[in-house]
Amino acid sequence: MARGSVVWLDGKLLTVEEAKISLFTHALHYGMGAFEGIRAYRQTSGGGAIFRLREHLERLYESCKILDLRIPYTLDELMQACIDTCKANQFEECYIRPLAYIADGPLGLNPGSNPPVSVAILTWEWGSYLGDEGKNQGAKLKVSSFIRPHVNSAMTKGKITGQYVNSVLAKREAIAAGCHEALLLDAEGYLTEGSGENLFMIKNGVIKTTPLTSILNGITRRTIMEYCNLKNYSIHEARFTRDEIWCADEVFLTGTAAEITPIREIDHRLIGRDPYLGKPGPITTEIQRAYQAMVRGEMDFHAKAWLTPIA
């Protein structure tokens, strides 16, 4: 995982060694920050392009609005900053991490009515988030003992730094149990999502994904739903239980980091029916291939609107 040697911090491109923050940074103590995960892809026609950059940054602004933080830059300025950071690191294909947080200021729980907000943008090369085995053959999941907090305990529509402790605990538990990823239930016992991915299941040709009641509105999730509607697949937002997903024909996760990852096993139960038992199914495989074509500029499906050239 090669990290970029240059980062963007508060309007300047700096080397990693030059980019420093204070130990008195409020967000370091209390988790008051928001972030995004974005990917740039090498295009089949040449060069690199960032996939759905504007939509990701729009969500960053919404996350900061939930926290009542004011980003001191316009959306267009941050779009250009993401492009400039990729160029400075000579990355045509990479993961991009914008991060907005309360900087050095008051150190009590109350940061004041207009706390100082810093913005950083980092880049690194990141392959298959759940590993090549998971991406190609299907990942193994475990329903976690940790649950997603109630919607009035955690602001579920924000990609908020402090809230990811829940995901970290669930992920570590799953890894310790020999799995690739965790699935989390909500407070009522229904499935929500992975530690950092949205969840889809397929049964008898019908695609279901968990509703937005207690999950983040994933950009990749929205992309796949639009594609499925275009292809006239039957797709619904609906709650479902762990025993229902055990009996699914196909299961897959979506996310910027995970992209489209098929699931072969949940709680030691192989997913699917013959001849796809414990293997990626045909619909998942089609969606996975279509997504890779989209992000690399090989498909006209929203290509101009969704791909921002690194130039």
Question: Overview of this structure, please?
Answer:
There is one protein chain. The chain is of the alpha+beta class. It folds into 2 domains: 6-124, Aminotransferase class 4, branched-chain amino acid transferase, N-terminal domain (D-amino Acid Aminotransferase, Chain A, domain 1), CATH 3.30.470.10; 131-295, Alpha-Beta Barrel (D-amino Acid Aminotransferase, Chain A, domain 2). Helix content is 28%, strand content 28%. It has helices spanning 26-30, 53-66, 75-88, 131-137, 165-176, 219-230, 242-246, 282-295, 303-306; strands at 6-9, 12-15, 33-35, 38-42, 48-51, 94-102, 117-124, 139-147, 181-185, 191-194, 198-203, 206-209, 234-237, 250-255, 259-266, 269-270, 307-309. Strands 8, 9, 10, 11, 12, 13, 14, 15 and 16 form a 9-stranded mixed β-sheet that branches. Strands 1, 2, 3, 4, 5, 6, 7 and 17 form an 8-stranded antiparallel β-sheet that branches. β14 and β15 (259-266) form a beta hairpin. α2 (53-66) packs across α3 (75-88).
